[in-house]
């Protein structure tokens, strides 16, 4: 994976987040405090501003750079969580020049574990982790089985969207919605929605590759 | 949305610049990373630093000055500041006795301050404020939110730090006040985050949101609008139940803070105070200190919060000591 691929993914993610403004903002208004979309947009724009510099870096260094930039740009809960994800994803990739699908899956898993650690959160708490944990597990399993990138991407799209849907009937025990008790039930989590949108976008790019 | 705004992306910088100019005798502001610090750096004291999302003015920048904070880190509206701001603020104001962070208990604030402390080269401690009794505490959740009690904690811990007290004593006083303070808010309307451009929640003229947070996040219950007396009675009872649940005294001297959330006039806040004072006195409390006004707001939300702090001589002494900030000033 070259850092130009990371830039291409980042640009596509920014377009997708902007396109989903209404959905994401609506969810955050229902059970959050209305700043999630604004923070995601600020993060996407910060990464876009790094594009030229990222092109000169290795993939691992580019991911670390993205993490540092997000840490000083987003704030809120999303800032430290996404920063921890990218910085931790970068570490296992540092040792390898060329990377296999399995290595990327393992790096993704390390990133998700960093989010769990930083947020002191597990699956089932109505957060982004309800999308990220099942996606990381399936990504690793399918990569270990030697499945093709396209097959994995197709499978992860479904898993991400199932993960998002699973937040609907959860009580929130982490994040801003955690003060709401039963009132959070029936609403999707906005952070889970953003993650589903980002994963879906990357999978679509993989699927459309010639 | 109708607000005084040029460009929503520039609001924070324009407002902070105005703040720093208006109070140029007390504070100065730095940008990128952004923090507000005292004009005159203090020496030989624990540095008290707080921070949080913008939109709660005068909290926190309005409490930078003698007798209160050494620095404050404002984030974007309702969004926690970032670790680089906290590190830059600590670097600028630390005075060799350590740094005490006062952090309101929200996931984002806790994580950003935590990442800052992991990188901080000085002795440090953190007081986590969690006075909002509307949120039921549990080991499994983010827990109670930090709201108006934060102002009392910043005032008293700031006062103690001025005496040259050490880091552990400052943290201990902050933790003690947090335990002995309980707050609850009620909203009549939503607030509008400028960048979002529309109200965070919909609420009709005949409803109130009981237990609302300071970001427009919903409370525990949507209720029918009633008389002020009936609403305040529920708020007072929630606070008294919270003290009972914490096995704290439900009598004795208290500080009563009636705080406006941004769009409720002082006339109504004093009316709320009148009822709350009467009810609390009937229950056996003695109101020794009072504060009424807009001290921790939720942008333009109409609503108010009640805060009761159980006083002892130490807290009273530090509440009364001189303070000179943009948001609180007495005794000097």
Topology of helices and strands:
The complex is a heterodimer of chains A (210) and B (332).
Chain A: H1 3-19, H2 21-31, H3 36-49, H4 51-55, H5 59-71, H6 78-93, H7 101-119, H8 129-144, H9 149-166, H10 190-208
Chain B: H1 11-22, E1 27-30, E2 35-38, E3 47-54, E4 65-66, E5 71-77, H2 83-93, E6 99-104, H3 107-119, E7 124-129, H4 149-162, H5 167-179, E8 181-187, E9 207-210, E10 221-224, H6 228-245, E11 252-260, H7 266-282, E12 285-293, E13 303-310, H8 313-320, E14 323-325, E15 329-330
Parallel strand pairs in B: 3-5, 3-6, 6-7, 11-12
Antiparallel strand pairs in B: 1-2, 2-5, 4-14, 8-9, 8-13, 9-10, 11-13, 14-15
Helix pairs in contact in B: 2-3, 4-5, 4-8, 6-7
Let me know the average pLDDT of chain A: 93
Tell me the distance between the termini of chain B: 40 Å
Give the overall silhouette of chain B: globular
Class inferred from helices and paired strands of chain B: alpha/beta
Give the uncertain stretches of chain A in residue-range form. none
Query: Tally the helices of chain B: what do you get?
Result: 8
Helix content of chain B: 25-40%
- Total number of helices of chain A: 10
Task: Specify Rg of chain B, calculated over alpha carbons.
Answer: 19 Å
What can you tell me about this protein's structure?
Chain A is an all-alpha fold and 210 residues long. Chain A is built from ten helices and no strands. In chain A, 57% of the residues are buried. In chain B, 32% of the residues lie in helices and 25% in strands. In chain B, strands 1-2-5-3-6-7 form a six-stranded mixed sheet, sandwiched between helices. In chain B, strands 10-9-8-13-11-12 form a six-stranded mixed sheet. Chain B is globular. Classes of the chains: A mainly alpha (210), B alpha/beta (332).
Observed structural traits:
heterodimer; A: 210 residues; mainly alpha; 0% strand; globular; B: 332 residues; alpha/beta; 6-stranded mixed β-sheet
Explain briefly what this protein structure is.
The complex is a heterodimer of chains A (210) and B (332). Chain A has helices spanning 3-19, 21-31, 36-49, 51-55, 59-71, 78-93, 101-119, 129-144, 149-166, 190-208.
């Amino acid at each position: 994976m070259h850092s130009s691929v990371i830039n291409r993914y980042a640009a596509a993610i920014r377009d997708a987040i902007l396109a989903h403004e209404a959905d994401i903002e609506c969810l955050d208004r229902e059970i959050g405090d209305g700043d999630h979309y604004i923070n995601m947009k600020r993060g996407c724009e910060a990464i876009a501003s790094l594009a030229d510099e990222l092109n000169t870096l290795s993939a691992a260094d580019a991911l670390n750079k993205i993490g540092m930039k997000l840490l000083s740009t987003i704030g809120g809960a999303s800032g430290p969580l996404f920063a921890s994800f990218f910085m931790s994803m970068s570490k296992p990739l540092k040792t390898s020049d060329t990377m296999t699908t399995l290595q990327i899956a393992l790096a993704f898993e390390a990133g998700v574990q960093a989010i769990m650690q930083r947020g002191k959160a597990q699956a089932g708490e109505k957060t982004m982790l309800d999308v990220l944990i099942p996606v990381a597990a399936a990504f690793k399993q399918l990569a270990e089985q030697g499945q093709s990138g396209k097959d994995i991407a197709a499978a992860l799209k479904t898993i991400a969207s199932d993960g998002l849907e699973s937040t609907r009937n959860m009580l929130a025990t982490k994040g801003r919605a955690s003060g709401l008790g039963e009132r959070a039930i029936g609403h999707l989590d906005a952070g889970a929605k953003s993650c589903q949108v980002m994963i879906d976008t990357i999978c679509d790019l993989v699927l459309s590759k010639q | 949305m109708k607000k005084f705004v040029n460009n929503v992306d520039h609001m924070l910088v324009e407002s902070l610049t105005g703040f720093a100019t208006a109070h140029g005798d007390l504070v100065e502001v730095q940008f990128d990373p952004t923090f507000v610090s005292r004009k005159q750096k203090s020496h030989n004291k624990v540095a008290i630093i707080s921070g949080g999302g913008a939109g709660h003015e005068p909290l926190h920048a309005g409490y930078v000055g003698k007798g209160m904070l050494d620095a404050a880190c404002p984030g974007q509206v309702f969004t926690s500041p970032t670790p680089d701001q906290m590190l830059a603020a600590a670097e600028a104001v630390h005075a060799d006795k350590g740094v005490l962070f006062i952090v309101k208990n929200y996931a984002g604030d806790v994580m950003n301050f935590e990442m800052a402390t992991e990188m901080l080269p000085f002795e440090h401690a953190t007081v986590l404020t969690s006075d909002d009794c509307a949120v039921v505490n549990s080991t499994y959740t983010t827990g109670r939110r930090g709201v108006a009690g934060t102002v009392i904690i910043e005032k008293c811990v700031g006062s103690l730090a001025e005496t040259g007290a050490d880091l552990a004593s400052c943290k201990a006083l902050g933790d003690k006040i947090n335990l002995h303070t309980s707050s609850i808010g009620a909203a009549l309307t939503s607030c509008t985050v400028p960048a979002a451009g529309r109200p965070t929640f919909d609420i009709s003229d005949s409803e109130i949101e009981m237990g609302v947070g300071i970001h427009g996040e919903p409370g525990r219950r949507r209720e029918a609008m009633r008389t002020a007396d009936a609403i305040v009675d529920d708020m007072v009872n929630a606070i008294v139940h919270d003290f009972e649940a914490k096995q704290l005294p439900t009598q004795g001297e208290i500080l009563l803070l009636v705080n406006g959330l941004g769009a409720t006039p002082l006339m109504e806040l004093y009316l709320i105070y009148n009822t709350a004072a009467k009810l609390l006195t009937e229950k056996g409390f003695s109101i020794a200190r009072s504060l009424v006004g807009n001290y921790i707001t939720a942008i333009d939300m109409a609503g108010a919060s009640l805060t009761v702090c159980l006083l002892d001589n130490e807290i009273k002494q530090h509440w009364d000591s001189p303070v000179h900030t943009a948001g609180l000033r007495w005794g000097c």
